[in-house]
């Protein structure tokens, strides 16, 4: 049975998130009190806000008038409160970064919409970069931050920005996991310079086959790798360790695979790298969960898409921390929608509760 008082608290936190994100309060003609219910309705039914409410125009207007950074810091304020409650800043953490996207149908313009193939009518993608906790010993595997991604962005700059924004909310970082799309010399150079430990899955390259080919099945070889980074019209020397694993058996697929990883942590060589790396897939599971809260939208504005994305992420984070053991994510969405409606009909009950994590 879901705790009703906890649901009331969660609704008030969502209203507070909306107000902080959009610079609203109860003195304005519209605030999080009025906007939360249509957002929750759209989430529960996976539909457009226009379908369930007449508040879509005023919501989109307020989003466009605000700054995306306000939405980012509104979410981070909630993470800050969770960090204190769960004592995350006292725990060692393993993190994972990954991109997720939302489909766009229409004329692709500007730097916010990444062009797509047109298959199934999808002409573009809005992209977001997310950093999540994926540690074995921390049950609250929460997304710590997500940022909107433009065409031509520098991976290293965005990732270092994410890490700088969340560093006070978490303890020591044991390892940061990346898939092959993040194998980037500039990123590896910057992470090492700032003492961030990483493990990156290396894409297949012909120049690596000369090392893998003569190896025996099950064999592991580690070599020191030197590389050069070209940036700011200068060249900078970098180094890391490349770990080659030949024909490692995968129980899930019942096949053998070659793996190559890049890391700046010598101690990680003693670990089972494939098992460690597969923990990164937990962030992809988080994306699939959040899809159940997807709000449909036709807007070309990244501000609008980003606000809706973080609202969905707020719901996912709440569920992971407080409701996961009581109900499914979809049931939580339905119940919090009902609670939001009842609070709108009985506002005195809503504001009798203080907003806290």
Describe the structure.
This protein is globular. Strands 1, 2, 3, 4, 5, 6, 7, 8 and 9 form a 9-stranded mixed beta sheet that branches. Residues 351-356 have low confidence and may be disordered. It contains 13 helices and 9 strands. The chain has helices at 4-22, 32-45, 49-52, 56-65, 68-86, 155-166, 185-193, 206-212, 273-278, 281-290, 302-323, 329-345, 347-350; strands spanning 93-104, 113-115, 124-133, 143-149, 173-178, 198-201, 220-231, 234-250, 255-263. The protein has 357 residues and is an alpha+beta fold. The chain has a domain at 193-271. Helix 2 runs antiparallel to helix 12 (329-345) and helix 5 packs parallel to helix 11 (302-323). Strand 2 (113-115) and strand 3 (124-133) form a beta hairpin.
Topology:
Blueprint: H1 4-22, H2 32-45, H3 49-52, H4 56-65, H5 68-86, E1 93-104, E2 113-115, E3 124-133, E4 143-149, H6 155-166, E5 173-178, H7 185-193, E6 198-201, H8 206-212, E7 220-231, E8 234-250, E9 255-263, H9 273-278, H10 281-290, H11 302-323, H12 329-345, H13 347-350
Helix pairs in contact: 1-2, 1-5, 1-11, 1-12, 2-12, 5-11, 6-7
Helix/strand order: HHHHHEEEEHEHEHEEEHHHHH
- What is the share of helical residues? 40-55%
First and last CA, distance = 20 Å
* Cα-based radius of gyration, to the nearest Å: 22 Å
Give the class from helix and strand content and strand pairing. Answer: alpha+beta
Instruction: Quote the beta fraction.
Output: 15-25%
Q: Please tally the β strands and state the result.
A: 9
Low-confidence stretches: 351-356
């Amino acid at each position: 049975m879901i705790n009703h008082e906890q649901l009331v608290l969660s609704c008030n936190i969502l209203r507070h998130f909306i107000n902080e994100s959009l610079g609203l309060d109860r003195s304005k003609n519209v605030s999080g009190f009025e906007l939360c219910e249509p957002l929750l309705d759209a989430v529960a039914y996976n539909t457009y806000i226009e379908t369930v409410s007449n508040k879509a125009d005023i919501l989109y207007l307020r989003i466009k008038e605000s700054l995306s950074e306000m939405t980012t810091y509104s979410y981070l304020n909630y993470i800050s409160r969770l960090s204190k409650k769960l004592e995350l800043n006292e725990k060692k953490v393993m993190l994972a970064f990954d991109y997720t996207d939302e489909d766009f149908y229409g004329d692709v313009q500007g730097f916010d919409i990444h062009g797509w193939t047109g298959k199934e009518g999808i002409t573009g993608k809005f992209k977001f970069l997310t950093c999540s906790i994926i540690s074995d010993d921390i049950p609250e595997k929460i997304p710590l931050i997500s940022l909107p991604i433009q065409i031509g962005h520098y991976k290293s700059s965005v990732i270092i920005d994410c890490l700088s924004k969340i560093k006070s909310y978490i303890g020591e970082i044991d390892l940061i996991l990346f898939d092959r799309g993040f194998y980037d010399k500039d990123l590896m150079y910057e992470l090492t310079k700032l003492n961030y430990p990483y493990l990156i899955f290396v894409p297949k390259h012909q120049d690596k086959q000369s090392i893998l080919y003569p190896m025996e099945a099950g064999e592991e070889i580690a070599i020191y790798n030197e590389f050069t980074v070209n940036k700011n019209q200068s060249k900078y020397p970098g180094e890391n360790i490349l770990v080659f694993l030949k024909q490692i058996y995968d129980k899930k697929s019942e096949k053998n695979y070659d793996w190559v990883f890049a890391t700046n942590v010598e101690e990680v060589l003693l670990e089972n790298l494939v098992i460690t790396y597969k923990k990164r897939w937990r962030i992809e599971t988080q994306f699939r969960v959040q899809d159940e809260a997807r709000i449909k939208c036709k807007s070309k504005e990244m501000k609008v898409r980003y606000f809706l994305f973080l609202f969905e992420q707020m719901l996912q984070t709440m569920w992971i921390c407080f409701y996961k053991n009581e109900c499914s994510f979809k049931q939580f969405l339905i119940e919090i929608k009902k609670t939001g409606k009842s609070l709108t009909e009985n506002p005195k009950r809503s504001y009798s509760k203080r907003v806290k994590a």
